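Reviewer 2 asked us to include a model.

Predict the structure of this chain.
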Amino acid sequence: MACEFVIPGERSELLRSGRVRQYVVQEVLPVRQLAEHIQAFKLAFRSTGPLALLDHFDTPYSVLSQFRAVEPSLQEQTLDLLVKAVSQHSSDLPAVLDDTTLKPSARLDHLNALKMSCYLLTQLIEAFDNQNYKEELANVGPVGKARKLKSKSGAFDWELARAHALQVLNQLLQLEIRRLWPMGQVEEEFSRLITSCCCHILECPSIGQVKNKATREAVAHLLGVMIKRYNHMLGATLNVIQLLQHFEHLPPVLAQSVTTWATEYGLKSIVGEIMREIGAGEGGRESTGARCCAVFLTELADRIPEIMAPNISLVLDLLNGEEAVTDAYRRLYLNGESSKPQTLVQNLTALLFDSNVDSIKCLEQLVSEFVQKNEIKPAVIQLLWERLTEKVASTPLERRAAVILLGMAARGEPEIVGSNLETLYTVGLGPRVREQQDYQLARDTCLAIGKLSQGKKKLLGGSAISFRLPSDHQLFSHISDAVTDGFCSPSPHWRPFAEAAVALVYQLSENPDRLCGHLLLCCASLLTNHQEEKADDPPSEQTEETAEVKATEVCPDSPSTLPAHVLGNLIATVGHVALQQMLHLERAVGPEMQRRRLNREQQEVKQKMKGKTTVRERTLTHLPPTPCKPNGLLLLLCSYVTLSVIEI
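Predicted model (structure tokens):
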């Protein structure tokens, strides 16, 4: 055969030539002549093997083109011939590929026969699949279950025949068939031919049934070979995503396929690629595709938790939006080796710093739930405390992770932080942190302690108030020292810490406005002192030019200057105190006044029932509550700071 067989995009393309020396179908045979030509194909195959297709391609092509009009027996004979052709070629090709004396024309013949047989076989598989699916729909039993379909002869079982055909294709693709191509690289059209057939099979709703187990396994192995040997990693990743978005029956099937690729073919990296694509593309959690992706990930977590774990942060937000999510993470982190304290803490630490804000919120919800159900054991909490206090060797990043995870656990059980509060603020806000200017750890410490505010103190009568600490508690001294010690620091992490510190004071202090007023006073004094120190700096070695500049800076007629970050720190702190004061009035003072008023009204009702209410008491009860005035010191401070800024 001197021409080249080009795998078509559309079947009709084989009826016309697109370029010189391209194979073209000479004739689509009439249905009545097919039996005769199939018999001739059989005889040629017996004598010349799979190369018989070079002269008889038009016969199976004609069967394929008129498939619905062809008798079932002829359909089955054609399928059987093509399966045998591919199988025989698989046996012959090793010797052909190793033959160094093989002529280019003979190599081209084998390449053409290979492409022809694979094209016809995959197309026939799809044709049988389509026909079988339509017959299943037309033969649904009285309880909604399809009857098993056989040909008129009763000997043909499509499920078994399909699995066998896929296994034969897999056997062929295990060979180094790329050496048949001139450049040693399998053409993209050939790879797409195989993978498209696999995807078509997976689209069938019955693929998940027990009877199709052999087919599912064959498809998984066929795609595994394509990924490993034919550079189909990206294509397979996109195929998985697309199938999940359109077919609700596929999550368990695809989860098993991906498991096969990762475990039997060593393709662990594709798990991360698929998770990355899902995390990047599934923003809408209400879509069917997003739900299918979540089910798929949960199924995958059940099978290969250790492979999923390093990439779980990529899809954490999606899983939180769907289920079986708690179970998935339970399998990932709380079963087997993963549940050991050292391993669990290490995994959660890695997950924590590889997540975005939404994913961290989801992780906090999961950790708190596990703590509430006692699934995170005390040994894990103990290890976190030991990391924070450096009783075990830990890096600064691991210390931060420890305090963040302790805060997450405290959401489920506030006593985790409450029982070790002194340890937490001594370590997280102590002299060493201030000396190292580790304001990220200080901020995370404040956020963890803030979980205590979720606790409620029960009062007589069934009402409850938020947990509060007295204003002279040592926690607030550590907060004040940490904020003021770093006030002049240029660290970009100081302001987030100061915001968290101010918020914590308003969360836990009985008199937050007074404490924060004092804090602002200290910061304003530091600002003034810093300005005076700059003016009184002793002269140092300097050139003539710098001396002139220095003289200008200290000239009485010139305005005072300060580093921008110091002034910015003060303004940011004042602004956050003002915000927290407003929220404090709305959330704490207002509800407390309402609670007291309700208590007075309840007492009045009780006294009325006893007939002891006086006119004066009734009058006082109905007087409007005295409006809460902001702390005088705080107002004075804000005015002072404003004037100081204007002067500067």
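Residues 167 and 458 are 69 Å apart (CA to CA). The longest strand covers residues 456-458. We have added this to the supplementary material.
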